[in-house]
Amino acid sequence: MNDHIETGGHQERKEQELLAELRELGYRPAVRCLSCGQWLVAHKSIQRHLGPVCARRAKDTAA
Ligand SMILES: [Zn+2]
């Protein structure tokens, strides 16, 4: 009846809040690149879950 559909937007916002909180506490969050599995610590890379190189590659293939 009450199908629970996960919306990407909500999840993303939660994630950003969590990351901001961790940074405030002095943690340095890291995620693995979805494409190559490398650990990323750069803020932008974490937001995308993609390293700069893979992000560019993904953009190229998407375009
Ligand atoms: Zn990568």
Q: What secondary-structure arrangement, pairings included, does this model have?
A:
Blueprint: H1 8-24, E1 31-32, E2 39-40, H2 43-48, H3 52-62
Antiparallel strand pairs: 1-2
This protein binds zinc ion.
Zinc ion binds near residues 35, 50 and 54.
What would you say this structure looks like, in words?
The protein is flat, with a radius of gyration of 14 Å. The chain has helices spanning 8-24, 43-48, 52-62, and strands at 31-32, 39-40. With 63 residues, the protein is mainly alpha-helical. The chain starts with 7 loop residues before the first helix and ends with a helix. Strands 1-2 form a two-stranded antiparallel ribbon. The structure holds zinc ion. The site of zinc ion has 7 residues, from loops. It comes from Rhodococcus pseudokoreensis. InterPro entries: DUF6011. This is C2H2-type domain-containing protein.
Quick description:
54% of the residues lie in helices and 6% in strands.
The biggest beta sheet reads: 2 strands, antiparallel
**Low confidence ranges:** none
**Small ligands present:** zinc ion
Distance between the termini: 39 Å
Strand order of the largest sheet: 1-2
The total count of strands amounts to: 2
- Tell me the series of helices and strands, N- to C-terminal: HEEHH
Average pLDDT level? 87
Distinct helical segment count: 3
Question: Helical residue percent?
Answer: 40-55%
The class by helix and strand makeup works out as: mainly alpha
Q: Tell me the β content.
A: 5-15%
Rg over alpha carbons: 14 Å
